[in-house]
Structure formats: C-alpha cells, structure tokens
Amino acid sequence: MLAVPDMGLQGLYIGSSPERSPVPSPPGSPRTQESCGIAPLTPSQSPKPEARAPQHAPFSVVVAIDFGTTSSGYAFSFASDPEAIHMMRKWEGGDPGVAHQKTPTCLLLTPDGAFHSFGYTARDYYHDLDPEEARDWLYFEKFKMKIHSATDLTLKTQLEAVNGKKMPALEVFAHALRFFKEHALQELREQCPSLPEKDTVRWVLTVPAIWKQPAKQFMREAAYLAGLVSREDAEQLLIALEPEAASVYCRKLRLHQLLDLSSRAPGSGRLGERRSIDSSFRQAREQLRRSRHSRTFLVESGVGELWAEMQAGDRYVVADCGGGTVDLTVHQLEQPHGTLKELYKASGGPYGAVGVDLAFEQLLGRIFGEDFITTFKRQRPAAWVDLTIAFEARKRTAGPHRAGALNISLPFSFIDFYRKQRGHNVETALRRSSVNFVKWSSQGMLRMSCEAMNELFQPTVSGIIQHIEALLARPEVQGVKLLFLVGGFAESAVLQHAVQTALGARGLRVVVPHDVGLTILKGAVLFGQAPGVVRVRRSPLTYGVGVLNRFVAGRHPPEKLLVRDGRRWCTDVFERFVAAEQSVALGEEVRRSYCPARPGQRRVLINLYCCAAEDARFITDPGVRKCGALSLELEPSDGASPGRREIRAAMQFGDTEIKVTAVDVSTNRSVRAAIDFLSN
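Structure for Heat shock 70 kDa protein 12B isoform X2, as requested:
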C-alpha cells in the first residue's frame, strides 16, 4: 500500500516508480500548507520500533524546580554525590507554625509589568500596599492550573491578575522561573565557587502527569524565555512528571521515613504507636535474603528497605495530591536494577487543595452574597489575599476528629467594605443567612464548626477517592500492594483519614512519607541524575498522521475514494505511530522516511493527529483531532545526490515529552526537527 501524508500534495514529486504517482488531496481534507508536501518512502504498516539507549550529557549539578499550584521550591545535588539532596534555603517571611522550605506560588509585578518579587516577599509586600495603590499592581497566585484548564493553550494565552489586568501567560511563568534560576545559581556559587557557570547545570521542571503535550511544551518555552537553557542545548532541561518523581524518591526511603496510616489509633486524629511497616513483609524479606540474586538486586538497585522487601514484579500506586490536581500513576518494580515500569497511563483530575479554597469562597457567597464577594475581590484585591491567608492557616489545622470550632479572621477592610456596600454589618448578614454552622464570635471573627470545615473538604476528597477506586478496578492494576500518598495536600489529616477509611478495607497499605510535601521535589532531583529509572511508560493517547492508501473496495468507505490518473486512493487514512495505553520503552523509536516534494524545498510540515481510541481508522473519525505539527528544516541541497532526497525521522514516545530527531540520508547530517503542539 502507498502511504502519502496528508499535507497538501499539489506538485508532489514522488519519482518514476509505477507504484507511486502525484496524488492531490481532495477538497476539504485536513492539510498543512500546500508548499510543504512530501512523500514517504516507508509503507503505511509501521516498522517494528527500535530501541535506542538514551544518551545524556554529563552535568556537574542537577537543579530541580517544583513549580506547584500553591507553593514552589527548588533543590539540587552534585553529580559527585547524587543522593545527597540539598534543599533550598529557608525563605524569608512565612507563616507562623508552617514549614517554609517552599514558598507560595505568588508573583508580583509593578504597575508597568516589571518583576518585583516572588513568594512570601511578593505576598507580604502586596498585602501591605495601600488599597488604592494595590489596584495598579499585578499580583498572580495559584496560576499554574490556568494552563492545564485552557482548552486552546497557545504562546499568546493570557493570565488575569488579581486586579483583573491581563498579560501573556508565558511572561508570567518566565518571571517565576527566572527568579528560581537566579536564586539557585546564587546559592550554588556560594557553596561551590569553583563551579563553572556554562553547561554545568541540568535543570528539571516538574509538571502533573495528566498534563497534555501543549502544557508540557509551554513550560519548556517559558524556561527558554527565562534563560534556564537555550534551544540549542535543549537536553539541559528535563520535564519530570510529578507522581513519577515521587515514586523515584519513595523507592529510596527507609522504614523509619514512612508512616503507615493503618497504624492510627482508632477514634483519634493522631498517629498511635506506629506499627512497623516491615512486620507485614518480614517473610518476604527473609526469602529475599536467602537468594544470592536478590542480595545482588538490593545492592545494585540502591533501593530503600521497603523496596528491598518487595519482590520484582510487585505493583504500587502513587497518588500525588497537590494544590491543583490529583495525579495517579501505577508502577511495577523491575530487577535487576530497580527500574520502574508504568502499568497504566497516568490519570487524575482537578481535585487539588484549591478545591477547598473554592468551597470556602462559595460559602462566603452564600452568607454575604456572590455579587459582594466578586466586587470585594475586584476592588480590595490585597484584602482578599489577606482573607485567603487566614483561611489557609485554619484549613491546615482541620482534622477528622477535631472537637473545637475554628475562628477565621475577617480583614477590617472586608467588614468596613461590607457595611458601606450593604448598609448593615457582617454580624447581621450572618444572622440573616441560611448558613447556621457559621457564627460571629465575640472576638470579631467568623466561628466555624469543625463539621462545617470538614464539609468544605468533601467534594475534593470524594473526587480523589473516586479516582483511586476507579484506577484500582482496572485489570492492569490488579495485585497492587501499596498506595503512596504524596504531595502538599497529602499533609491534610482530613484527606489521610478519608483515604485510609475508604481503601484500608481493600487490604491496601496506605503509606505517607514523613517529608510528604517535599517528596516530588527531592524525587525530581534524583530523576535528573538518572532519567532512565522509569524504563517503560504508557502512551496516554494514540498519535499518527493522515495518509493516502490504495483504495480497497469493501474495506474503505466509498466517500473516501479518490481517482487520479486511473489509480484509486483512499483519503484521510489515520496511520498510527503509537496507540493509547501502549507500553513504550525509553529510547524506543518509531521511524519514518520522507522526501521533499520539490527540489530546493527548505521546510516540511506534517500534521499530527491524536485521539483516545486505539482503533481509529480515519483522521475524520469522531474524537480524532489535529494536535500538532512535525516540522523539518532542510539545508540547501548541494546537488551531489540527484533524485529523491530522503529525510529519515525518528520519534520517541516513551519519554516524558514526545521527541523527534531527523537526518538527511544522502549527507548523513542532522536535520533540525521539532514537534509543535502550541500552534493549532
């Protein structure tokens, strides 16, 4: 069968072979620019993918940036001692009683859009601005999820500041990443003055595993704009998937660094006398110790004690519960080096801690009126930030067995603004509202019952549990022994209790690392030192291109028939590169060879299509959509090789990003190749 990519093939040069001829695309077919037509040299059936060991340049230090929805931070380790992870310095500012090895994901820009500050400094400075002056400053918080929720994400996507003003999202993210770059490099220079500046740092950025390719590319583009790396040295930047990073870190932990939630004392919200995790694995450990091969496995893999007790083939789930999303991944431990294999594509949804904040905002709307809350946020943005800080402090103290009520301070500007807008005070509003579990305390605060606070958690917590239960019901996930609960939201006693209550009866051991809020950050550093630790991943979608194949009556729909020069072709055939949920090894390549349509052609664009189904036949099928374009930038031909010019492209789907390389076969020179997911 002949496979001709769908790209507008007018004037296409295919050669003298009787099996191939110029074939125009029919009107209305999806295509790219007409000047970019090419013909493939390979048939439509995919050749067997070839695995190639990924090559990584040596770096002196790995710096990982965990860019979170609610809080962010960085950590690093030197190649000479990769497992000695150095956490960033404690941040200036912070909230009493809250560990601040991370800083809030808050960015403050001056009225003219210049960078002012990030983190606690930005939050506190903005809080102290005069209300009238604050209206002109651009304050961004919890903005990471905006690029996840954007259905048409591009490099021109805008973000809205608290005061309603907008600016390009790419610039907002670049400001934040530039801040971390400068902060980290300054600390590295102080710790190691002899460290060369150029090409010495490998940067790692964390993203949710459920993010699609456009969002991942967006973060990479922001890193380029921030100056972390250049496009020419793209391999200096790795994108790490957050639950994968957590998994990489958890496999290094020892038993005393983990909490088993099943050891909570009944009826209490605190950990009881901790039951040793290894009691349930003692027999397996003894069996492993009797095996010489297993002893070698333990030494070579460098895994922690809990993993040493697990046998090759054991499966576990990592639930990354962050500020914006819950991310679930399922891994299998492999011998002999403790590598990881993904068993089911990453899943999850927008069930992060910000859902609790949204529930609180909706509660305020029920009491004081949604129109008032909207007006207050717009006209008193700094005071609104102050109110959210007060709620965050009380949210952290919520627990399933807490007995006392919680007091939440209302800023004076809220009380004063409400009286001016409504003509009566907030106490009157509380008495008149239908919300009977929130009262006005004698200290001038909102007094909320612990049951009411826990109710704010329920929609988000229920969504997390439903996602976990749906995952555990999948046949690929049967035999799971452990669930690791990680991420900033996993610190919540409400969430921990709900997950243990719902899943403990299934015989699933729910385990929480002691430094649960830093698990992803530390794991990202380890991932940067050894990116090959996750050996096999599952493709989340089916990817391919549109081609023309020879028409087969009875198999192809009549409306897809195209007759040209007496030959019958089927249009819009979906040629698959990789299928949804297909296991793809790291370094495994899907290769295709193409030739330009015209001599002297300098650029080739090939439309890429994707869908969730595994069995799509045509690019016009329901659910199939154009998701990106493969671009090949060609150097002028020297004319030494007359005839067709073959360009061989190799695509990798087993990494955290889809990657492509290409080579001009006649000259054996590399061709600049890229996949753009942001220009649709």
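The CA atoms of residues 578 and 636 lie 32 Å apart.
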